[in-house]
């Protein structure tokens, strides 16, 4: 349990590191959804019930930009992040191997969503006897990122993660996840 808290504290500190340029802006809205634009390249529609906060990161790291969200109506939370990775599957496998989470279930499968290829990482972990988290983490990239790897060979990977404090997601939560993912536009 102390290891889990330590990992949580490290991740929290990373989220608080500042970055000078904003990543998030509102580009349109109606009664039920808000369209968010990220770095003028990525747009996604999110429900108005969702509370959104921008995260700040030092330039040059693997995690380039991100925001976190939570929806009190549907009782889920998560992240939308832009990563720089050279080998996505190796990165996720290595992350699992060093994790202190007590996984009850864990899977990685290839997916294509909104014209983007990637991996779906679904897991469920126990945190003590009374607390469980379930996750659906979508790691998406453009096919070969249009040749836009950096000097170190890293390509941009979009992570959209959803978490609930239960054994599984409800049908309403799964539908909202589908709606969000289906609205993605990455130029």
List descriptors.
11 strands; alpha+beta; 3 helices; 7-stranded antiparallel beta sheet; disordered N terminus; 187 residues
Global shape: globular
Which H/E pattern describes the elements?
HEEEEEEHEEEEHE
Distance between the termini: 42 Å
Q: Record the strand order, biggest sheet.
A: 4-5-6-10-9-8-7
Task: Return the structural class.
Answer: alpha+beta
Mean pLDDT, to the nearest integer, reads 77
Say how many strands there are. 11
The helical percent reads: 10-25%
Catalogue the unreliable spans.
1-32
Mind telling me the C-alpha Rg?
16 Å
Please report the number of helical segments: 3
**Share of residues in strands:** over 45%
Largest sheet: 7 strands, antiparallel
Q: What topology does this entry show?
A:
Blueprint (H helix, E strand, L loop, with lengths): L1 H15 L7 E6 L3 E6 L3 E6 L2 E6 L7 E9 L4 E10 L2 H11 L3 E12 L2 E11 L5 E10 L13 E10 L6 H12 L2 E2 L1
Antiparallel strand pairs: 1-2, 2-3, 3-11, 4-5, 5-6, 6-10, 7-8, 8-9, 9-10
Q: What is this entry, summarized?
A:
The protein contains three helices and eleven strands; from the N terminus they run H-E-E-E-E-E-E-H-E-E-E-E-H-E.
Task: Explain what you see.
This protein is of the alpha+beta class and 187 residues long. It contains 3 helices and 11 strands. A 7-stranded antiparallel sheet has the order 4-5-6-10-9-8-7. A 4-stranded antiparallel sheet has the order 1-2-3-11. A hairpin with a 5-residue loop joins strand 8 (116-126) and strand 9 (132-141). It is globular, with a radius of gyration of 16 Å.
